[in-house]
Design goal:
With 272 residues, the protein is of the alpha/beta class. It contains ten helices and five strands. The chain has a five-stranded parallel sheet with strand order 2-3-1-4-5. It is globular and about 60 Å long. The N and C termini lie far apart (48 Å).
Length: 272
């Protein structure tokens, strides 16, 4: 990616990545869009080169350098129409150990990942609320909103991996800080990424990029309001799911105290 810097945003769904991307995109030097396929593509092609495709590569005397060239070219191909100086790629599991290894090997030897953190209970509650609004009440806890699903568990484990590491490649941003102190939070991101500061507008947010939420069957999942605020609503969470969320939040809180010396912050949403 000539003359461009690629950073990543990692974390569970409903942790503020769309809000963060929307605020960052006010700066015309920065490009962000919806959830990216770059991380998954990098992993899939890497695994194919080591698996089913390995025989063909070997038979045609394709060296490791060829594989390196293919994977290293992916970001430029994925963002071929982007000319902005900085790119923030939204991938929920960039902070996972294996994905970080691929990032260092093929994309950036010194990656910088913004890891968004929010209590799992609030993440599940927000997803359940969206399902109810979209007439999917009969699918509550199936796949998307279930803590044991890949949509939550994999990015949760990626977040824990980042917290448990001693790497300086991560900047941890709690959802509550992003919402209540956006200016301070954005300033930290600029410092972390070594970017010149920009005067952002936090009182009148305009969403320039919108994902097609019909793909997820959850209208409004990636919508950002002009005013930054936390929704206040009631959602009934089943006992088993609540226990699982509490266990995961305890694990998350312990990791945060050890790494950051700060607890997991709750936004005090009402949970049934």
């Amino acid at each position: 990616m000539k003359d461009q810097n690629l950073f990543a945003i990692s974390g569970m769904p409903r942790t503020g990545s769309t809000l963060l991307a929307t605020m960052l995109s006010q700066n015309t030097d920065i490009y962000t869009e919806g959830n990216s396929g770059l991380c998954q593509l990098t992993w899939d092609i890497h695994e194919s080169c080591r698996g089913e495709c390995a025989e063909y590569l070997s038979a045609n005397r394709k060296s490791a350098g060829t594989i390196n060239s293919i994977l290293s070219a992916l970001p430029s191909l994925y963002y071929k129409d982007v000319s902005n100086k900085y790119i923030f790629d939204k991938g929920k599991t960039w902070a996972a150990t294996n994905n970080m290894e691929l990032m260092r090997r093929y994309i950036n030897k010194k990656p910088k990942i913004v890891v968004l953190i929010r209590p799992v209970m609030e993440v599940v509650k927000s997803l359940v609320n969206l399902q109810i609004k979209n007439g999917l009440a009969d699918e509550i806890y199936n796949n998307l909103s279930h803590p044991q699903s890949s949509s939550i568990l994999m990015p949760f484990n990626a977040t824990l991996n980042a917290l448990n590491s001693k790497s300086n490649e991560f900047l941890f941003v709690q959802y509550l800080d992003l919402v209540e102190h956006p200016e301070k939070t954005i300033s930290k991101i600029y410092d972390f990424c070594d970017m010149p500061k920009f005067n952002h507008n936090f009182s009148n947010i305009k969403q320039l990029w919108k994902e097609d939420d019909s793909v997820y069957r959850l209208d409004g999942m990636h919508s950002v309001r002009e005013k930054i605020e936390i929704d206040d609503y009631e959602v009934e969470i089943s006992g088993v799911i609540k226990m699982r969320c509490n266990d995961m939040d305890e694990e998350l809180n312990t990791a945060m105290l050890l790494r950051l010396d700060t607890p997991l912050k709750l936004s005090k949403l009402r949970v049934g």
